[in-house]
Amino acid sequence: MSTFNYTLSSFVLLATTLLVSADFNNEFDITWGDGRGKIVNGDLLTLSLDKTSGSGFESRNEYLFGQIDMQLKLVPGNSAGTVTAYYLSSKGSNWDEIDFEFLGNLSGDPYILHTNVFSQGKGNREQQFYLWFDPTADFHTYSILWNPKHIIFSVDGTPIREFKNAESMGVPFPKNQPMRIHSSLWNADDWATRGGLVKTDWSNAPFTASYRNFKANACVVASGKSSCAGSTSSGGNQAWLSEELDNTKQERLRWAQKNYMIYNYCSDSKRFPQGFPPECKLA
Ligand SMILES: *[C@@H]1O[C@H](CO)[C@@H](O)[C@H](O)[C@H]1NC(C)=O
């Protein structure tokens, strides 16, 4: 009896593990970089950049809402001039987009985590952060919770940014266009580090960023149909579809914004002399 229980519970554990960490080979295609992007054993993906080219990948699935987690370990050492972008994006000239961009730096100087939200082709909603750890020393989890109420950017479970649905104020919200996950590592030394003052040092190339533990609890759209449509049980728990920030998370969000936010478009009065965008009232 105890042997049976043991076997059963290890089976359940195994099944859960497989669900939690998807096989990169089934989820993503390396889309550019001529061999500089690699999937290793299905559970690790690496992108690299040298003087000739960067590299990138995208998801096979298109998503319309989701709780999407990925662990990243960024380019170590002197990463000045490099940008690792990890984002969701739809297609067309009125596209929607949810961005994480990691701007590299000289050894020992902090990366900047740059975030933005585009709806119907319009962005200009930047918030930037330092991190409370060295993002090159180990893997950390970067998450996007995207549901009809809001978009929450989190780092290791701590929300750093909330973009609320402000449709009632006339601000379009991404909710009709399915998006793919994209990531790329490229050279942006004309603007990335200290506004472009510090250039990429190619003697450190190739630069490499790594990805693991991809987990998407999401609505997948295929042939115009959503996997979430008309059911609350497909794929299990969909509490995230209506999830809001509880008090603990709101406190964490305030902590991150107070201590680590270095730029917020909603307080850049020089940029918006005619008044801030309407959604800034909600923040
Ligand atoms: C790089 O380090 C400098 C000096 O500490 C800092 O001002 C800057 O914000 C850092 N990050 C980037 C991406 O420039």
From TrEMBL:
Q: For this protein, what is the EC number?
A: 2.4.1.207
> What InterPro entries does the record point to?
Beta-glucanase-like, Beta-glucanase/XTH, ConA-like_dom_sf, GH16_AS, XET_C, XTH
| GO biological process terms held by the UniProt record | cell wall biogenesis; cell wall organization; xyloglucan metabolic process
Class in the EC hierarchy, top level: transferase
Record: glycosylation sites: 105
A molecular function annotated in GO for this UniProt entry is: xyloglucan:xyloglucosyl transferase activity
PTM comment for this protein? Answer: Contains at least one intrachain disulfide bond essential for its enzymatic activity.
Please state every residue range assigned to the domain named GH16. 2-211
Looking up CDD domains in the UniProt record yields: GH16_XET (cd02176)
Q: Which named protein is this?
A: Xyloglucan endotransglucosylase/hydrolase
User: Could you read off the lineage of the organism from its UniProt record?
Assistant: Eukaryota, Viridiplantae, Streptophyta, Embryophyta, Tracheophyta
